[in-house]
Amino acid sequence: MLLNSLSRISAPLSVNLEVTDKCNLSCSFCFNAAPAYEDLMRRSAAHQVQESKFPNLQMVQDVSPVNMRTERLLQILDILAEAVVFQIRLFGGEFTVFKAWRDVLKYAHNKGFLISFVSNGFLLGDEDVELLSKCGVTDCTISVHGPPEVHDRITRVQGSFDRAMRSFKLLESNGITVSIAYTPVVENLGHVYGF
What we know:
Blueprint: E1 14-18, H1 35-50, H2 65-82, E2 87-91, H3 101-110, E3 114-119, H4 126-134, E4 139-143, H5 148-155, H6 160-173, E5 177-181
Parallel strand pairs: 1-2, 2-3, 3-4, 4-5
Helix pairs in contact: 2-3
């Protein structure tokens, strides 16, 4: 047996699953808010309906976009489980704006994935955090970009700092460890050390 040798793995250990490209905030630095990105995503979605990159996925034309997207996400989770991916990180946009995100979470949990997420924390409520904890989520990341007035100016949504902090406290009180994502930009550079 060789010690300290590299092993080959058959799949990524962790996958960021973009549940949706939509977001309820409009951060000044985010590529997701750019019109060019929205156009690209629209064209990409239309192309994927016509010609799927995933041969095992069946696109159904006669269902709502939410149902079609949900079915696609569940099929992707099947493929990732078959490939023996260890962790799924729910991602976006902001994954909590997708109406069926709870169904995706439960399905990933039932497939045996270790689950975490990245969120702005704006929409998470008591029941959501309880469900996340019940589905085995033990850590996550919440985006916070400085003190309240700076954060709200960057996200362009008044009260977004307070909502993120409420979620932070709620998650921690339910045993979920929270990391902070702080994106240094011109608006908050002077607050990095103090924050």
